[in-house]
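Students often ask why inverse folding is considered easier than folding. One informal answer: many sequences map to the same fold, so there is more than one right answer. In these notes we will look at a single instance of the problem. The structure comes first.
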């Protein structure tokens, strides 16, 4: 009889990954082979600052709180944006001199409760995505250091009815990757 058992352990979110495996040769004799592989700083993430699950926690408060700490720049790419709380936070940030740029899915800009026109009227730099299909991203980059990402749309449905999530990541490398994606979207948005 030969069986291999794999064990994967993640510590501190994504900061450390160890892989070990055990090989059993027969019921009478056991040979144990342990291999440990450690990877640190996966994709440039320094730490996972927060995780939020909607309906049981207030994810909009987590996002708004991070927006309030912004000093220089906020980049947002979001499929659905109907949250008054998050629109208020972005308008307030822009009012205190933070550069705010938002890309919204074009098909969602005209839905009831969309914050697209409100953001435009408040002077926030907001564009509609240029993808002929769907721009289904849901992420924000704050001050080239923090990234908020997950399934969470910026909507009341996401906050109060759906099971959705966000993770707040800290790290300049991961932030840079999301910024590159944001500016790729921005370059084709109108």
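Output (designed amino acids):
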């Amino acid at each position: 009889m030969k069986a291999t058992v794999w064990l994967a352990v993640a510590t501190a979110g994504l900061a450390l990954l160890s892989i070990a495996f055990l090989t059993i040769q027969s019921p009478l004799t056991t040979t144990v082979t342990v291999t440990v592989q450690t990877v640190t700083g996966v994709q440039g993430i320094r730490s996972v600052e927060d995780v939020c699950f909607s309906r049981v926690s207030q994810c909009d408060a987590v996002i708004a709180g991070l927006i309030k700490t912004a000093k220089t720049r906020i980049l947002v790419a979001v499929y659905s944006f109907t949250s008054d709380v998050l629109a208020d936070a972005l308008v307030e940030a822009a009012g205190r001199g933070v550069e705010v740029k938002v890309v919204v899915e074009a098909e969602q800009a005209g839905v009831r409760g969309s914050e697209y026109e409100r953001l435009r009227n408040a002077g926030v730099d907001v564009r509609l995505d240029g993808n002929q299909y769907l721009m289904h991203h849901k992420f924000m980059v704050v001050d080239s250091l923090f990234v908020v990402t997950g399934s969470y749309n910026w909507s009341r449905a996401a906050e109060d009815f759906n099971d959705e999530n966000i993770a707040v990541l800290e790290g300049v490398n991961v932030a840079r990757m999301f910024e590159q994606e944001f500016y790729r979207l921005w370059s084709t948005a109108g």
